[in-house]
Amino acid sequence: MILIIRRISLAFFCLLSLCVAASEPTWIEIDGELYGAKPDQRGPIGGAEGYVDVITEGDYVVRDNRFDWNRHSIAGTGRPGSSYIARHNIELGVSLSHCFDMHGGRDRKDGTDIAGTSIEISNNTFLPKQTSVRIRGVPEETCEVHYNWFVRHRGPAQAVQASAKTSVEDNAYGDRPKVAK
After folding, report:
1. Per-position b or e across 130-157, b if 16+ CB within 10 A of its CB
2. pTM confidence score
3. Taking the mean position of all CA atoms in its chain, how far away is CA 51?
4. Measured between alpha carbons, how far is residue 181 from residues 56, 66, 171 in Å?
5. What is the pLDDT of residues 102-151, one digit of tens each?
6. How wide is the angle at C-alpha 158 spanned by C-alphas 152 and 161, nearest 5°?
7. Beta strand 171-173 with 178-180: parallel, antiparallel or unpaired?
């Protein structure tokens, strides 16, 4: 199944702007602009609110978006079989929590530590001061965080929180970036 969403603008959502659940592997491409709220006003962030893209099951690509005023701009349930690629996105600067997320088994209370199957986060720009990426368990395959610019972080430990099977390489840090291997 292929779902393509182009050139959309979403504002003032309460719970989820986009949630796609699939019972079989799914490929989703989001090609447009998504907002948690109008960029010149405070959005309804906090509690269970403030999610833009929620990855349930399947393979997803989230690309070419501008995000602002979200709790998590991308959040995955972390169930086995859930994967995403996030590339060429810009986090504009306001986030209640970390920006890109993948839940682990502790969040689901299923007795595992699985945080999805695979995650690739590349070529994104993160302006918020909060941790940009948080992987809350161990992916079945791998998580690669590379070629991103973390404007308000001095190094990988500030920008990314993750454990095993996560590679954080070739990213730029600070407002005058130097690539850190």
Report:
1. bbbbbbbbbbbeebbbeebbbbbbeebe
2. 0.74
3. 10
4. 32, 26, 7
5. 999 999 899 999 999 999 999 999 999 999 999 999 999 999 999 999 99
6. 130
7. antiparallel
Contact 22, 46 (CB under 8 A): no
pLDDT in tens, 115-124: 999 999 999 9
CB 119 within 8 A of CB 140: no
With beta carbons less than 8 A apart as the criterion, state whether 104 and 137 touch.
yes
Catalogue the long-range contacts made by 152-158 (C-beta closer than 8 Å, 24 or more residues apart).
152/126, 152/127, 152/128, 153/126, 155/180, 156/180, 158/131
Cα distance between residue 132 and residue 171, in whole Å: 12
Q: Do residues 171 and 132 make contact, with C-beta atoms less than 8 angstroms apart?
A: no
The domain segmentation of the chain, as residue ranges, is 2-180
E strand or H helix at 157, and its extent? Answer: helix 156-159
Considering only CA atoms, which of 52, 46, 102, 45 is closest in space to residue 79?
A: 102
Rounded-to-integer distance, Cα 134 and Cα 20, Å: 21
Helix (H) and strand (E) counts in the chain: 2, 19
